[in-house]
Write a structure and sequence with these properties.
It is a single chain. The chain is mostly helical and 143 residues long. It has one domain. The chain is 81% helix and 0% strand. It has five helices and no strands. The longest helix is centred in the first third of the chain and has 36 residues. It starts with a helix and ends in a 5-residue tail after the last helix.
């Protein structure tokens, strides 16, 4: 039973990392375009581009990563997904700012480091809150 659970978890994390990579490309490309071509400050660009990446991530997670949906209402589910994303955005922007302003790292390299740091946070919370059956449903009860 444990082997099956860890196999499923590994499969979901691998897919989540792939989907996260695609979402990151959306986020990163928009960050670059908004900052370099439109002249928007990198932290504002990071927030706008993060929202686009978040939407891509949500849709891809539903289509390919997670088999179980805990919430029957897709609107509520997206709101929780987005709340986790908003927390990740705040962490992302904090890391982006610290790495760029205080460590002197280019904002695009800072973005890569911040995204990598937040990957496990996002996966863990989203899987636990949205895309896994309640723990009682996954355990066999013995009389």
């Amino acid at each position: 039973m444990k082997a099956l659970f860890f196999s499923l978890l590994k499969k979901q994390f691998t897919r989540y990392a792939f989907v996260g990579g695609l979402s990151f490309l959306v986020d990163f490309a928009c960050l670059y375009a908004l900052t370099e071509y439109l002249g928007i400050h990198y932290l504002i660009s990071a927030s706008l581009s993060f929202c686009l990446g978040l939407t891509a991530n949500y849709l891809l997670c539903l289509a390919w990563v997670f088999d179980f949906r805990r919430m029957p209402n897709p609107w509520h589910e997206f709101m929780v997904f987005s709340a986790i994303g908003l927390t990740a955005l705040l962490l992302n922007n904090l890391l982006l700012w610290l790495l760029t302003e205080y460590a002197g790292i280019h904002y695009l390299l800072s973005k890569i480091a911040a995204t990598a740091a937040i990957l496990f946070f996002n996966f863990s919370l989203r899987r636990w809150l949205l895309f896994s059956p309640p723990r009682a449903a996954t355990l066999k009860t013995t009389p």
